Amino acid sequence: MKRVRMPMLRCCPRSSSWSAGLSCTSSSSWRCITATNLRFARSTSSITSSNPAQPPAPPKASSSAANRKGKKLASVFQYFAAHDPSSSTALPVPPATVDFVRSITDEERKAAHAFFTKNAAFLASSVAAPNLPAEDQPEFAFVGRSNVGKSSLLNALLSKPLARTSNTPGRTQTINYYQAGSVKLVDLPGYGYAKAPVRIVREWQQFVNTFLTTRKSLYNTSVLVDSRRGITDKDAEVIQMLNTHGLPHQVVLTKADKLSRREIFVVLAETKERIKRSPFCSPIIYITSKDGLGVDELRIGLMRAAKSNQI
């Protein structure tokens, strides 16, 4: 075994006892002892231990990008549950959204899932008012810019790939009805950019506006907004129209998985500012259809609306 030279013990100038200087307050003595202990530590590190060396712990497997996004958004919902809107250090999250998420129970999540997935099926398509289904059940409409993710959201709500999705803006050119338990979900043509003549686009918009303002069985309209863009002027026009006619609606921020956690809070605050004078707007909800985060919250909000306004 290799010999090890023990560190020299020095007397603390303010103490009568011999020590390694740990209680000494003299800076010069402390530097001396620290250097001595460092040499001692280096010499002892070369000694072979009688115990076998432990193998290094294997590196942790890195999470995929999808898992990281899922954890990021899940942490936001957990933050909602514990968030205190009265705190001076709180991030700018709308209190109504926080209160809404806090009020949700596990039992209600299960009930909402069953409520929307039971007997889920495609019902009908229509390009004119006379061909619309009978107004015998509560209806929930989904409207937004072209390619905002309406069809993907409907598939997530129904837990079935019933709505046709596409990367081509303006793919939905009819009013499509889906049965979801005892309610109907309505996929409306997107506004904004679409690969169609201007005249056709205007006709769609007029048809959608008439539907939203005259359909008696329509309980709630979800205005889908791309969270990366925020509320556009056209989104604001639709929200204003719904408010003018006193129609219940809510803003649903889509594609939230494209944003960081901080960016999500910022867009929530900006959206709240844009709709602060919208008395008929429900709490803001953001979703990512790919991971399913926020889908339960939207289901519950719609289910509560249906139960509070039974036909």
From TrEMBL:
Keywords: Cell cycle, Cell division, GTP-binding, Magnesium, Metal-binding, Nucleotide-binding, Septation
Keyword Disulfide bond (UniProt): no
SUPFAM superfamilies named among the record's database cross-references: P-loop containing nucleoside triphosphate hydrolases
One example GO MF annotation: metal ion binding
Keyword Transport: no
Region (Disordered): 45-67
GO biological process, one term: cell division
Signal peptide limits: none
Domain EngB-type G: 136-308
Record-stated family: Belongs to the TRAFAC class TrmE-Era-EngA-EngB-Septin-like GTPase superfamily. EngB GTPase family.
HAMAP family found in the cross-reference section: GTPase_EngB
Name of protein: Ribosome biogenesis GTPbinding protein YsxC, putative
